[in-house]
Amino acid sequence: QPRLTLFDLPLDVITLPATLDRLGEWMFRAPRAPHTVVTLNPEFIVQSRTHPEFVQAIQEADLVTADGVGIVWAARQLHGREVPRAPGYDIVKGLMERHGADLRVFFLGAKPGVAEQAAQNAVRDYGIQVAGVHHGYFDLPEDRRVAELVGSSQAHLVLTGMGAGRQETFNQYWRQVLGAPVIIGCGGVIDVFAG
Ligand code: UDP
User: Fold this and answer.
1) How far apart are CA 128 and CA 105, in angstroms?
2) Which of 36, 77, 81, 192 fits a 20 to 30 Å CA distance from 111?
3) Does the keyword DNA repair apply (predicted)?
4) What is the ipTM score, two decimals?
């Protein structure tokens, strides 16, 4: 699909249904290789100005979608293009609805106990399989241990909700160890699933 550039950052012009198709192919049809997904919002643009590693993580992501209207507006102003929204919450919910029991999900992020609750609710509502859960409050020296825990879980989908920048740089740096065919930075989505 076409790719625009917004302040040095890539933005894919892709609808929510097309995003779900693409991620479904990565998880279930293509050879199993890790892919990262960024859902871009204006906060990322501001924050990445002063964090080159955040810029790099977004530039190297396999798919960058417009999380909300702020990005849609920016693309319209800068490129005169209408970019559809594919917000993180809608992507995650859409994948769970489509794939249900075929989908193994790792919930990584939020405060202790929240990922467990999110996983329970997702099992109840969509019948997904839970590959594992881990809170999002660990320091850099623990990154490898957590990434290896995820990597050994056989997840199709890794949801990383650890705050803007932290989640994207973690996902990109550890993608080979995480190993899952779809790894998505999803901000507060784990909190939303926890209800
Ligand atoms: N979070 C986390 N570890 C951190 C900071 C935040 O797991 O070190 C979680 C937080 O609990 C929430 C999610 O990341 O579930 C998004 O946090 P917040 O809205 O503060 O971050 P933003 O996306 O606005 O940067």
Assistant:
1) 7
2) 36
3) no
4) 0.96
Per-residue confidence at 1, pLDDT binned at 50, 70, 90?
confident
Nearest CA owner, ligand 1 atom 20? 163
Q: Atom 8, ligand 1: which residue's CA is nearest?
A: 137
What is the set of domains in the chain, with CATH numbers?
3-194 (3.40.50)
Question: How close is the Cα of 85 to the center of ligand 1, in Å?
Answer: 22
Running DSSP on this structure, what letter comes out for residue 85? B
Please tell me the distance from the alpha carbon of residue 158 to that of residue 108, in angstroms, as a whole number. 7
Confidence (pTM): 0.97
Q: Where are the beta strands (DSSP E) in 24-174?
A: 36-40, 63-66, 104-109, 129-134, 157-161
CA gap 58, 48 in Å, rounded: 9
Query: For residue 122, which phi and psi values (nearest 5 degrees)?
Result: -70, -35
Mutate to test the pocket of ligand 1, among 162, 189, 193 (most ligand atoms within 8 A of CB): 162
Residues 64, 11 contacting (CB under 8 angstroms) = yes
- Give the per-residue pLDDT at 31: 86
